Amino acid sequence: MVSSSIENADFDETGYSYALSLIAGKHKPVILYCLMEYEPVRFNEMQRYMKRVTDRTLSRNLKELEADGLIVRTMYPEVPPKVEYTLTERGRSLVAVLDKLCDWGEANRP
User: Fold this and answer.
1) Domain count within the chain
2) What is the CATH number of the domain that holds 86?
């Protein structure tokens, strides 16, 4: 077993820290799970699915996930405007991780 010292360790430099920074928060994992199960999803559908989330909060989280390359926002030129969200390939690569969280939750739910 390799012994490592915490004295020179920097959590911010770990892959774990980076992954958490992309999906951290109350709503981002739920958004990713929703898209994993039901994509494509429109804004209002997402809001109904999540129940207690404000327009502003949902919009901010969607923009952050889009900026991080995990989801894509597609706008259709219609009246009223139609916008759908889907996972990118990078976002789909998180599905295995989210599936493991689901498995753990199902196995350990009271």
Assistant:
1) 1
2) 1.10.10.10
